[in-house]
Design brief:
Blueprint: H1 48-53, H2 75-92, H3 95-124, H4 127-149, H5 152-161, H6 165-225, H7 236-250, H8 255-267, H9 405-414, H10 417-420
Helix pairs in contact: 2-3, 6-7, 6-8
């Protein structure tokens, strides 16, 4: 019995051939070529098949049927015929044939090219942009029509002819000169903005480079003075190298960078005199997780000495920094945050502390009555306070903030007559023990 065609495959009108014994013979797929719904065969762009397969939109929203070779001649043949007629009319000077061929070619080319033009417009312009373009064209046409049919165009032409071209030329020269001036001003502004941007980028890059330098310094100092177990191990040569590195980094960074270095060194106890054993000079632990301080006979890992002479630290954060015994002659400490800083035995001669925050600053040890500034020839007594005080002669304390009564009385006694005039609250009733 012959099987009926499957309804799911309408293209299969015949069954597979069978052999004599009733078995189904193998098919040959390379001979059974059928259209594939999933991967249709697309004609090449510009070919006759593509032109015949393109549907054209009808005004009602439908699509025209593709060219049918059985009912219409191929479009390429029509093109060739029209072109041949046009060439023939040009050769034999046949006007009627040339006009007919031209009209046919215009219709055919317009119909074919319109598809590409419409696709290009759809790709380049959105629907809103196309409407805007049409609106602009309509506005131009409307203005031209109004000028043409209302007489305004004639009046405008009469006014145009009555103009004095000499005055217009002079006005144009003035406008041109003003325009050149404006262009020059704009060029100057652009150059200035480029300079500002370049400067900001340079500053930012310098800050990044400076921070990398400071980080490298921190790492190098840590590796230099610590052993493998993290304990302080500073031999004399290592202390000398650490001081040299500190002097080098402080001379190559700005005020903010200097403050960072000083805070790091101070909080890591490298600026504090530490108690040492008498055999190897190693720092001694205090039994509570830190190293024991020894103001009388201790040794610092890094002795600032004269490294900070004349340093500019204006507006920086120096809270809790140990600057004791440092030489800060003519240092700029304006508006610095010196809360809880240690300035005992610090040389502050002619330093500027105007506007600095002095809350909790240590200027001496011992009692106010016995505290005196440091001396070159006499050892300090940290119990009574003798020779443990800061040297404050010539310091500018103008507008210093949160100066305590004890600080004010010490400074008034030992700062000299010039500095007494700058101390907040005055020095009335406090004797000038400096004598000058």
């Amino acid at each position: 019995m012959t099987p009926e065609p499957s309804p799911s495959n309408p293209n299969s009108s015949t069954a597979r051939p069978s052999s004599d014994n009733g078995a189904i013979a193998p098919t040959k797929p390379w001979l059974n070529i059928e259209p594939d719904d999933e991967f249709p065969m697309t004609p090449q762009r510009g070919s006759v098949d593509e032109l015949q397969s393109v549907g054209y939109a009808e005004p009602g929203g439908g699509r025209r049927k593709p060219f049918d070779n059985t009912t219409q001649p191929p479009i390429a043949l029509v093109f060739l015929t029209a072109i041949a007629l046009g060439i023939t009319s040009l050769i034999f000077d046949l006007a009627w044939m040339g006009i007919t061929a031209a009209i046919v070619l215009l219709i055919l080319t317009g119909r074919v090219l319109w598809l590409d033009i419409r696709a290009a417009l759809n790709e380049l312009l959105s629907a809103r942009q196309r409407v805007t373009l049409l609106a602009i064209i309509g506005l131009v046409v409307a203005i031209i029509s109004l000028l043409r049919f209302t007489g305004a165009g004639q009046a405008l032409g009469t006014w145009y002819l009555s103009l004095s071209w000499d005055a217009i030329g002079a006005t144009g020269e003035v406008i041109g000169a003003v325009g050149q001036i404006l262009i020059a001003v704009l060029a100057v502004y652009v150059a200035w903005r480029q300079y500002i941007i370049s400067r900001d980028l340079t500053i930012q890059q310098n800050l990044i480079t400076q921070q990398q330098t400071i980080d490298s310094f921190f790492q190098g100092i840590s590796e230099l003075v610590l052993d493998d177990e993290g304990l302080l191990e500073d031999w004399p040569q290592e202390r000398a190298i650490a001081e040299a590195r500190t002097a080098s980094i402080l001379s190559s960074v700005d005020a903010v960078g200097k403050a960072k270095v000083l805070r790091f060194l101070s909080r890591s106890k490298l600026l504090t005199p530490l108690k040492r054993d008498r055999l190897l000079g190693r720092a001694i632990l205090d039994g509570s997780g830190g190293y024991e301080e020894d103001r009388d006979d201790g040794m610092r890992v890094i002795d600032l000495g004269i490294i900070l002479t004349g340093v500019n630290l204006e507006g920086t954060d120096l809270r809790w920094v140990d600057l004791s015994e440092a030489n800060l002659i003519r240092a700029n400490l304006r508006h610095c945050d010196l809360v809880k800083a240690n300035l005992a035995r610090t040389i502050l001669v002619d330093a500027d502390l105007s506007g600095a925050d002095l809350q909790g600053v240590r200027l001496f040890y011992g009692t106010l009555e016995q505290a005196t500034p440091r001396s070159r020839s006499t050892f300090p007594n940290y119990t009574t306070g003798e020779y443990t005080g800061a040297v404050v002669e010539g310091v500018d304390f103008t507008d210093a903030k949160r100066m305590s009564e004890e600080q004010r009385r010490y400074c008034c006694a030992w700062c000299g007559s010039k500095t007494r005039e700058t101390i907040p609250g005055g020095c009335e009733g406090i004797p000038n023990r400096l004598g000058r």
